Write a sequence for this structure.
């Protein structure tokens, strides 16, 4: 582990200790048919406090990964019964569910092209057995760190920092395909939200936006929900017709009857829904926005389809 600080400085030791503590929550699956080799890798991982799960063939590894979404990393041998290492990697990478899984291939086989095969099929890294303990630890840590950084960058690009809903950029980038599959676009806007800020201050306004977003997320699972602007939200959903109407009216009831943090004013929202199929998401959103405007003019706390 490269560090500018002395290995024995208090700061450095504390950093290592903290990292090890953090590792206790990281589940690593070791897929390896040789029980000696498996035990050896398990011991190495446990030195760094990882939570180790074992599989003795490729099929068992696949089953365990499918059953436990918390597994962050797979360390897999190549020659194993039932499903070999890189077939396992190929199968996993075809599934979007496993795109963030960190995979390190492992083999003692003489075939020098094996590392390339592993990487090409989607592994993050490869180690040839036998390896130095320190190299093993370095690769495990650096691959996990890279994955963590990537996830952070992706969140920064796609999510709204206040509400953690998708942002406008993500909505138009990923929402188009969803819309083309037969989605319906709706825009929801909080009523007289400026009054909340003016009466209770921006902090309370922010908290209210967060709570509203939570409620929206819980009410429309499976749809794409984005923060479209300040107190405006966009929903793309597969629901339509009466089912969508019912869901939206239920949501508005929930908003109205909920007491939001610190704000003692009643909270309501208005909604514009574009039910007619449009050629692009942009057009659907424009139309939904026009209906939203009509809903505001109709006295707010209402939906216009
Ligand atoms: P209407 O019913 O017509 O929608 O009235 P409104 O007051 O909700 O709408 P208006 O567009 O007049 O004001 C929106 C307000 O939302 C103004 C702005 O300060 C506030 N706002 C926008 N983004 C944020 C935010 O991130 N945090 C807070 N606290 N307020 C925000
Ligand atoms: Mg083997
Ligand atoms: Mg508003
Ligand atoms: Mg406005
Ligand atoms: Mg607005």
């Amino acid at each position: 582990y490269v560090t500018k600080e002395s290995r024995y400085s208090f700061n450095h030791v504390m950093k290592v200790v903290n990292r090890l503590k953090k590792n206790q929550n990281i589940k690593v699956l070791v897929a390896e048919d040789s029980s000696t080799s498996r035990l050896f890798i398990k011991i190495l991982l446990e030195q760094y406090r990882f939570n180790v799960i074992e599989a003795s063939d490729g099929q068992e590894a696949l089953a365990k990964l499918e059953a436990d979404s918390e597994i962050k990393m797979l360390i897999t041998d190549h020659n194993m019964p039932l499903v070999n290492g890189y077939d396992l990697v190929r199968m996993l990478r075809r599934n979007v569910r496993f795109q963030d899984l960190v995979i390190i291939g492992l083999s003692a086989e003489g075939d020098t092209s094996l590392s390339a095969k592993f990487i090409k099929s989607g592994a993050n890294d490869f180690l040839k057995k036998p390896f130095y303990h320190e190299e093993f630890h370095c690769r495990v840590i650096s691959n996990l760190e890279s994955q963590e950084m990537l996830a952070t960058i992706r969140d920064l690009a796609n999510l709204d920092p206040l509400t953690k809903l998708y942002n406008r950029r993500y909505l138009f980038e990923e929402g188009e395909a969803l819309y083309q599959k037969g989605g319906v676009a709706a825009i929801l806007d909080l009523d007289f939200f400026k009054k909340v800020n003016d009466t209770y201050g921006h902090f309370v306004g922010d908290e209210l936006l967060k709570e509203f977003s939570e409620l929206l997320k819980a009410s429309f699972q499976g749809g794409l929900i984005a923060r479209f602007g300040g107190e405006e939200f966009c929903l793309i959903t597969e629901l339509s017709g009466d089912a969508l109407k019912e869901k939206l009216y239920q949501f508005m009831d929930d908003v109205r009857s909920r007491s939001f943090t610190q704000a003692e004013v009643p909270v309501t929202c208005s909604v514009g829904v574009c039910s007619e199929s449009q050629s692009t998401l942009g057009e659907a959103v424009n139309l939904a926005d026009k209906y939203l405007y009509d809903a505001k003019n109709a006295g707010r706390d209402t939906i216009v389809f």
In short: Residues 133-158 form the longest helix (26 residues). The pocket of magnesium ion (ligand 2) is lined by residues 33-34, 77, 79-80 (CB under 6 Å). The mean pLDDT is 93. The CA atoms of residues 205 and 293 lie 22 Å apart.
